[in-house]
From TrEMBL:
PANTHER family in the record: OS07G0107800 PROTEIN-RELATED, PROTEIN KINASE DOMAIN-CONTAINING PROTEIN
Signal peptide: 1-31
UniProt key word DNA repair: no
Protein's UniProt name: non-specific serine/threonine protein kinase
Source species: Triticum aestivum (Wheat)
Membrane topology of this protein: Single-pass membrane protein
Annotated SUPFAM superfamilies: L domain-like, Protein kinase-like (PK-like)
Superkingdom as given in the UniProt entry: Eukaryota
Xref: SMART domains: S_TKc
Transmembrane region(s): 534-555
Amino acid sequence: MATSFSCSASTKLTWIFALLLILATMIQVRAQPPTAGFVNIDCGWTNSSAYIDNATRIVYRFDGESVEGGLSHEISEELMAGAANEQQKTLRSFPDGSRNCYTLTSIVGKKYLLRALFTYGNYDGLNKTMDGSPFLFGLHIGVNFWESVNLTNTDPSDTVWKEVITVAPSNAVSVCLINFGSGTPFISALELRPLEDTMYPFVNTSVSISNFQRFRFGNVTDPITRYPTDNYDRFWERWPDTSYPWINLNTNNKVESLDNVFNVPADILQKASTIDTNYSHMSVIVATGRNQDGKSLQLLPIFHFADINESNLSRRFDIYNAEGLLFPDFSPLRFQMVSKYKSGEFLHADAFFNLSKTPSSSLPPLINALEVYSLIRMDNLTTDSDDANYIKEVKTHYSLAQRNWNGDPCSPREYSWEGLTCDYSKSNQNPRIVTVNLSTSRLRGGFAISFMNMTSLENLDLSHNNLTGAIPDYQLQSLKFLDLSNNKLDGAIPDSILQRFQAGSLDLRLEGNPVCSNVKDTYCSKKKNTTSTVLIAVIVPVVLVSLLVVMGILWKLYREGKSGDDEDSAMYEEETPLHIDIRRFTYAELKHITNDFQSIVGKGGFGTVYHGTLENDDEVAVKVLMETSIAESTDFLPEVQTLSKVHHKNLVTLQGYCQNKKCLALVYDFMPRGNLQQLLRGGDYSLNWEQRLHIALDAAQGLEYLHELCTPSIVHRDVKTPNILLDKNLVGIISDFGLSRAFNDAHTHISTAAAAGTPGYIDPEYHASYQITVKTDVYSFGIVLLEIITGQPPLLMDPQTVHLPNWVRRKIAMGSIHDVVDKRLMDQYDASSLQSVVDLAMNCVENAAVDRPTMTVVATRLKGLLPAVSSEKQSVSATPRRTYSMDSEIPRQFQMMISGASNEGSSFQSGYTNGMSQMSLLSGR
Ligand SMILES: *[C@@H]1O[C@H](CO)[C@@H](O)[C@H](O)[C@H]1NC(C)=O
Ligand SMILES: *[C@@H]1O[C@H](CO)[C@@H](O)[C@H](O)[C@H]1NC(C)=O
Ligand SMILES: *[C@@H]1O[C@H](CO)[C@@H](O)[C@H](O)[C@H]1NC(C)=O
Ligand SMILES: *[C@@H]1O[C@H](CO)[C@@H](O)[C@H](O)[C@H]1NC(C)=O
Ligand SMILES: *[C@@H]1O[C@H](CO)[C@@H](O)[C@H](O)[C@H]1NC(C)=O
Ligand SMILES: *[C@@H]1O[C@H](CO)[C@@H](O)[C@H](O)[C@H]1NC(C)=O
Ligand SMILES: *[C@@H]1O[C@H](CO)[C@@H](O)[C@H](O)[C@H]1NC(C)=O
């Protein structure tokens, strides 16, 4: 992943810090800005007394109180002399454990800048950065992935830093080092800086940002500007190129900054870069470096401008990125700062920016500073805070520090504490601890009472330890299994436990304890191992079923081998005992009407769909079902018979079918406008608000018919946008109903867990009960409705999965309901109907089926929304669509720059960033 630059520390940082020292001494005359709230940790520093950093005058402390485990080291003797500061000289490495965390005290809900610094310094004498093998490890911020630190092929004296801006989720911020198996993770320093709440407003509890680039422009002496120039101690790198035709501007006049969003230091605003007036484009290209996987990042650029030229000539320019115009016709204000950014809008494009003079402008573009951040989604939930606190008490109680129990107990799942099992099944609730296994853990002393307050604990195994005393009076209702065997417990067994044991609700094991010396109850007798019986009970049927399946497949292959070469068998038609009113096609006919299966119009879960034309020129869609095994199922034809009787304007009409050994297909009316998913997320046609509501109503009416007017009700089971087709008038038509059932039932003898539906659309109650009801469809329809509103897929994958309803809830909680609306609507929608549709959708996706409305209610509510929208229509169509067409010259120029960057990149390399920042310049038109 992304961000940070690495710096050659020994030489360069030395004089950076020397310069800072001079600066600091100069500034000492004035008062330094406050460092209240700064947390400064020199990792691996063994002396518990704090020291004052010579350059910044900031007080650093040792890391003993913020971390468990790890080993302190000093960098190698020969690099020690070149170290620019004390923090570079020591570090803490973590050879044990896949995750090791630092915990820094913070104020809950406060925004912070957190920086981690890494100087390898060949501390272990293994020359790890230069030995040719990969050397990298990961960083987590809390329970979410932040980025990786890649030190492969770096000079051992280099310092790499990573910065994140985040909101403290509790009274502690944790940073974890993740062992990727490519070298021992280590860290040299950690710095936490409180920010104002107004700053970086797009950062909140669910969004953090990682620093990708932060530059200042103009003729700047310090390669890095930080505290005390910047009160918040951000690292601003000097823009590397100041040679002609770049021109540096500076002023001693005060530059006003009315903004409290970025609080850019005054010193930075008093300097700027522009270009010679013969030129009109200024390009700022920030190439991706070793730690930056630019393609997968989502970037947010923030530009800071203040015109510091005295002249009154006009200065106007457009700001482009590689994909198009970001900010048209911008004119910086004189001696006043303006920041340009799109709040919360992260771009998938690379960090290529072009400032391009507009034709009317007299002066070329100018820039003072640029920040680029990458998005970190903070989607992973932390463990239920009570559970977390109690298990931490257990850890303290039994002095379990050596177990490498640190960070969050359950989250992220792959780093959960060894011996714990957690319940993650409730997708928007914090994980709960259900099992604690501390068997054979050298526990001594009494039974930790904290276990008693863990309300979802079901299994507790403390066997084979040295626990003494009595079992406390344990009231826990959730506990099902308590293994205390082979300890030294000798107190009486409390009644509460005995009662639950006798009622059969608790499996108790106490054998091997002194208390059993005169008790003869079963919990005191050594039980025979039931696990093996269970295993036999599970394994034998599994093996048998597998054998049967294999034999079945072999038999089928054998039969096909005998008949398969025979082309004519394709023509063979079986008799069907059922009377079905629709046309039965032969394979040859299907081949003919689809022109030998030439034109594929879609591929779905059940097979491939081909375009076909009947003898009467009617267009049809021929769905050739993938699994021929269904042909042998007795469910297919009854299903076809049912479907052939379903007629509704919003349900696709089944024209015919084909069923025999070689052919299993359904023939439907052809829908020329494709499906709703394609219309919402692909292509060049964008549906307007009213069309969207109409399609939603169409689909709702189709489902209502299946649910209410068919007897017995037909549950679609796979309602999703790809199954909502559109005819030539954009009327929504539901397809694929009934099919899921035929398929799932056909397969029950192999796979009982065949899920109904598609991930993202599945009713949470279905997971619990495997019951399919009409409300299952209502849930899926709610997801469809949210897709219609937001244009987003049911599971957003950037960069990790979030379910659409949660995304919508979060957006609304963070900002306003308008933030959820599909950008393709260009703000053209009816705000009052928006609220109602979102409410309706959220109502449909209630966890409990009983809370969801019926499709009849849904259809009625949607119908109620439509007239109001119709009157809106005139204003919608009257508004010209904004176009973001780029200057025709520019794409080509970006092309040049991109290709140029790889060849000539090195000549533009900045000495301080190991080639991670580059600049280039285009000649004028
Ligand atoms: C600070 O500088 C002084 C003199 O230059 C030096 O003796 C001292 O060791 C330095 N302290 C640290 C913590 O670097
Ligand atoms: C580290 O390895 C590189 C490449 O193998 C070698 O050139 C260098 O001398 C080594 N440095 C040390 C201190 O061993
Ligand atoms: C969240 O947790 C999942 C499962 O443990 C993990 O795969 C994923 O990487 C985590 N996401 C982030 C952003 O860390
Ligand atoms: C930058 O400023 C210094 C003095 O502060 C001056 O000596 C130097 O020539 C300037 N360089 C450029 C490229 O303007
Ligand atoms: C780490 O950096 C090295 C050297 O720049 C590069 O070859 C490698 O691909 C990087 N690894 C990752 C995982 O980014
Ligand atoms: C458990 O909870 C009760 C009440 O909720 C509280 O009084 C008690 O102190 C808690 N016990 C522990 C060990 O935290
Ligand atoms: C219990 O303590 C004794 C003596 O301290 C020790 O020898 C024994 O190994 C311990 N047993 C377990 C199961 O930890």
